[in-house]
Amino acid sequence: MEPIFVAKPMLPAARDVHAMIDRIWQSGFVTNEGPLHNELEERLKAFLNVPAAKLYCNGMTAMLAGLQVFGFEPGAEIITTPLTFAATPHAIALCGFKPVFADVSPDTLTLDPEAVARAVTPKTAAVYGVHVYGTVCDNDGLSAVCRKHGLKLLYDAAHAFGVTVNDVPVGALGDATSFSLHATKLYNTIEGGILTAPDPEMAHLFRLMRNFGIVDEATISRVGYNGKMSELHAAVGLLNLDIYEEERTFRRGLRAIYDSIVAEIEGIRTQVKQPGVVTSEQYYLLVIDEKVHGRSREDIYNALKERGIHTRRYFWPVCSDIDPYRGQHIHSTHNRPVLETVKSQLLCLPLHRGVQDAHINAIAEELQRR
């Protein structure tokens, strides 16, 4: 049995990439919003069904632009979840703002609106929710808190590409949403990101932010990044968009197989199923309760690793346990934050075309072992 990892890049056929490279060389455009870049941007805007969508060189730069475009005061507090990749609080901190942690809901593991409400102070400027593992945040609950206190609502949708909620695209929720198009994501441009908004007027500001604030040859209207995506990355993005649904369908089938295995095991649950949500199929999450199951997350992680199946303790460590934010208070409605319990229970299984029957059988054996 070949070793397998939690993620495997979806890549187009090499011959198709070579043909795209020929197009790039013939055009002479390699960056600076070339023809392939612009084609991909328009196709993704239509695919994601959002009024404003602008490509970036990576998801982190899209996050930085989304945070800075609203003109928050230096030192403003941004409430977010500690159950996320470090990029989320890092982006907040790098913009000169203060990340403030609020607890997660025990079912969805996304930001708990009641905990967010407890974290609001006169310095709070925004809430930054994360659609973790592709599970959608309580947008209604978070929106109510933001309306009450006059806050902006931003989202990190790195795990939620292609997700809709009752036919509403996730990229149209809140005031702005950033997506990662990194190679570890189902839909990828190898490196890339996209920033979306429900307000079409934001598209112009997003474009300024990724290109030094340049309006035209003689005008620079604001401070901005060099956040443009190259033609080479756009080429991969165009090709991957053509095969994206096929891969997502495969993963949906693999999810059903995993679900059938987990359904028979006490002490292990999967991520919550949300009515009306079309999922991203980005990750397959297990929540392992050692007291009920008899084995810990670490036991299962190590046993699978010995068999060449590399799962991921995602997220571990959580952001409140890494050096830049270690020990930072987590606002919660509970005496002990939900996060402190679940952070040692979470395990993501491989979810991609590289998973074979032998891997599935080995995973089933280890999960069923007591």
SSE series: EHHEHEHEHEHEEEEEHEEHEEEHHEEHEH
Cα distance, first to last residue?
23 Å
Task: Give the overall silhouette.
Answer: globular
Instruction: Tell me the Rg in angstroms.
Output: 21 Å
Could you tell me the number of beta strands?
18
**The CATH homology group name of the largest domain:** Type I PLP-dependent aspartate aminotransferase-like (Major domain)
Strand content: 15-25%
- Tally the structural domains: 2
**Helix vs. strand class:** alpha/beta
Helix content: 25-40%
Could you give the order of strands across the largest sheet?
A: 2-10-9-6-5-3-4-17
What's the layout of helices and strands?
Elements: E1 4-5, H1 14-27, H2 35-48, E2 52-56, H3 59-68, E3 77-80, H4 87-94, E4 98-102, H5 113-119, E5 124-130, H6 139-149, E6 152-156, E7 164-165, E8 168-169, E9 176-180, E10 193-197, H7 202-210, E11 214-216, E12 219-220, H8 231-262, E13 268-270, E14 277-278, E15 284-288, H9 290-293, H10 297-306, E16 309-310, E17 330-331, H11 338-342, E18 346-349, H12 357-368
Parallel strand pairs: 1-16, 3-4, 3-5, 4-17, 5-6, 6-9
Antiparallel strand pairs: 2-10, 7-8, 7-14, 9-10, 11-12, 13-15, 15-18
